[in-house]
C-alpha cells in the first residue's frame, strides 16, 4: 500500500494518530520536502517516529518515483507531505504511477493552509481561487496571479495568496562547477508579497490596463504567519502597511489574504482585532468595503 | 485556555497527536455536533479519550456559550469540531465571546472537506467558492447556490457543494406536544443533490433566465463519499448519471464537485478513472470541456 500522509502545518505532533501509526510501522518512509516545510527538522521527525525518514527532493519524486514505489504492491510505503497530501501541491503524478503499477493507495488527510486560513476568521465560503506568488527577479515578474485576483475581486471574494519558498537553490557558480552546495532556504514574507503586488499593479497601470486597478495601496489584507502553530500570528491592514509588517509577524511561513467585499459583519469584527492601526482600518472599511456586496 | 480542536473527517484516530493530548487532559470537553458528524459515535470518542465528552447542540453553543467558556481564563476547555474548527462552519461567535471574556484561545487545525476534496485529484487552485445545498421541501427550494455556481463557472472553476445534514429534527406533532423526540438523522446524498440541481435549473429556465443554463443533465461532476475515510469512494459522471449513483457511493457523508472548464489533462486523467461510463465521460469531456479554458 502507498500511504499519502498529511503532516499538518506546524510540528511533529500535528500528524494524526492514524498517520503516526503508519509512519512508525511502514517499511519505508519518505518526506516530500520541496514544496513546503514543517517548522521542525527532519531529525525531530525521525526521533518521533523512531526510524529513518528519507528526504525526497523534487528530483527524486519526479524522476525516481519507481524507487519510492518499489514493492508497494506488497509492503507499506509512507509518503509524508507537509499540510494535506492533496492541498497546495497535489501528488497526482505519483498516484497515477502507483495506479498503473497496481499499487493500492490510501490517503490520510490533514490540515492544509487552504482550509486552516479560516482561522483568520474569514469564512472559507467567501474565498475564491487560491493563487501563488513567486519571488520576482529583475527580469522575471510573472503577473498571472493578477488576473486571478481580479476574477475573485469582481465577485467579491477573498483571495488566499501562497508565498514562494526556495529550498536547495544553487548559486550559478556552484551549478556551473557541478558542486552540490545549496544556498540557505528562502521564504517569502508578507512584506515582500505586498510589495510585489503593488509593483505589479504599478506595471499594469503603466501598460494602460484600465483606469481602476484590481487593488491598491489602500486595499485591505491580512498577513498570516505560522498558521496552526503555537506562535500563529495575524496582522491586518492596508497593503502599504503590510509592506512593513514582517517584524511584527515574525518568522516563516507567511501567507496573505486579500479581503473581498463580500464580508460579513462578524468576519469584519474578527479581523479588525488584528489591525496595525484600527482607525485607518475602520476608515477604509467604511469607505470601500462595508455594504458593497 | 479555550482550545478549538479539529477532529478530521472520519474516525477517532483522525485527531492529531497534539489535539488528543489536550482532549485527554482538559478540564471539560465539548463536541460540536450539529453542523457535521464524525463517522463514529460519541461513546467511541469517550472511550478513546478516557473521559466524558459533553455533546453541544446548536442551542447550547448559541445560547449557553458562557457555560462552555466557564473558568476558561484559568482552566483548559476543549471544544471539538468535526473537520477543521474554521472549516465549513466557523465558530467566530464563540471565539469573539471568549475574547471579550479575556480567555486565551488556541486552534488545533485538522483536515476539512474543503481541502480534503483535493483527493478527487482536482487541484484546489482551480476551485471557486464553496456552496451548500439544503434539503428542498415542496414550498422551499432556495436557489442562491445557483448564482454562486454560475460565478465559478464563468471563470472556469470547479464548485464544491456541501450537502445538508439534519440532526435532532422534531416531527410537527412532537414539536406541538413539546415532546423531545427526535427523528433519525438525515444526510443528503449525491443523488438527491444532483436531482435538486437539475430541478433548479429547470425552474430557472421556466423563469426565462437566459437561453443557456448554468449547468445541465450532461454537465460533468464527481460524487464523493466518506472523504478521508477507509471506505472513501468517488464516482464521476454527468449530473443525470449521478442522480442514480447513491448505491455505488454507499453511506454518508456525501459531497459533490461540479467540474469547471479550467481543468488540466492530469486532473482529467485522474478523475476519469472514477467514471460511471468512460465512453460517455470521454465524449462529453471532448465536446464541452477539453481546451475550453
TrEMBL record, chains A, B:
Q: Which Gene3D superfamilies match?
A: Cobalt-precorrin-4 Transmethylase, Domain 1 (3.40.1010.10), Methyltransferase, Cobalt-precorrin-4 Transmethylase, Domain 2 (3.30.950.10)
What GO biological process term is on the record, naming one? methylation
Which InterPro entries does the record cross-reference, listed alphabetically?
4pyrrol_Mease, 4pyrrol_Methylase_sf, 4pyrrole_Mease_sub1, 4pyrrole_Mease_sub2, Dphthn_synthase
| Reactions it catalyzes | 2-[(3S)-amino-3-carboxypropyl]-L-histidyl-[translation elongation factor 2] + 4 S-adenosyl-L-methionine = diphthine methyl ester-[translation elongation factor 2] + 4 S-adenosyl-L-homocysteine + 3 H(+)
Entry binding sites for S-adenosyl-L-methionine: 9, 84, 87, 112-113, 163, 227, 254
Pathway where it operates: Protein modification; peptidyl-diphthamide biosynthesis
Annotated Tetrapyrrole methylase domain residues:
1-178
The domain of life is Eukaryota
Which keywords appear in this protein's UniProt record, sorted alphabetically? Methyltransferase, S-adenosyl-L-methionine, Transferase
Supply the EC number(s): 2.1.1.314
What is a GO molecular function of this protein?
A: diphthine methyl ester synthase activity
Keyword S-adenosyl-L-methionine part of the UniProt annotation = yes
Q: What class of enzyme is it?
A: transferase
CDD domains linked: DHP5_DphB (cd11647)
Q: What does this protein do?
A: S-adenosyl-L-methionine-dependent methyltransferase that catalyzes four methylations of the modified target histidine residue in translation elongation factor 2 (EF-2), to form an intermediate called diphthine methyl ester. The four successive methylation reactions represent the second step of diphthamide biosynthesis.
* Family per similarity comment: Belongs to the diphthine synthase family.
Database matches in PANTHER family: DIPHTHINE METHYL ESTER SYNTHASE, DIPHTHINE SYNTHASE
What protein is this chain from? Answer: Diphthine methyl ester synthase
